[in-house]
Amino acid sequence: MEITKVEGIIISESSYKETSKLLNIITREFGLISVLAKGTKSLKNKNRAFTSKLTYANFQIYYKKDKLSNLLCADLINPFINIKKDLIKISYSTYLTELASQVIKHSNNNDIFDILVKSLVKIEQNYDPTIIKNIVELKYLNYLGIRPILDSCCVCGSINILTVSTSKGGFICSNCHTNEAIISSKSIKLLRMLYYVDIEKISKINVSNDVKQEIDKFIGEYYDKYAGLYLKSRNFLKTIKNTYI
Length: 245
Ligand SMILES: [Zn+2]
Known about the structure:
Blueprint lengths: L1 E15 L3 E8 L3 E7 L18 E8 L5 E10 L2 H4 L2 H20 L3 H15 L4 H15 L17 E5 L4 E4 L11 H12 L12 H18 L5 H13 L1
Parallel strand pairs: 3-5
Antiparallel strand pairs: 1-2, 1-4, 2-3, 4-5, 6-7
Zinc ion binds next to strand 7.
């Protein structure tokens, strides 16, 4: 057993015995870990403030590999005040942390954590959460090993793109088109841009609802077909999203 500092975000918290909490934390250093936060159900406990969902902090822990670690103390990195005030932002952020925790099981790569952090910072700064979610979803396809082809037609390599195809796995040209719905050229351009963009460098987002819907629909179908993930928060997001887009 050793004392270690880990940078992480709390994905979920639950009660543990009478007085304690059990935290599931996604970390840069160790992927997903479970941490026992002793005594944190007490109002007087100094660590109590660091034990709620979506807390982003440096956690000092007794780390036990593949076992329950113990929380010693924490330094807050970002309290995500705006996210925690807004049900829609909470829902998107919860979904993204849940998604990241699934993706990190497939590929233990620091970038997965970093992409999550950058996306939550953007949601905190009031950027459109649907677009931020779509960027993260597109980038995570790489780590799930199901990267779509968004540079040229995924069947013949032509660069005259007509639309996008879930079943064929990316952009397609008019020669390779069979029965896929045609999406707008704006959506095609933006889809590719979102796939490659560095989230940190986004300074404004101005996208019409039609384009947002086309992009979100493709990504949703692509995940359904290839990712094989079940995420509780995604269903909830679908219900609130209909009122938001
Ligand atoms: Zn083609």
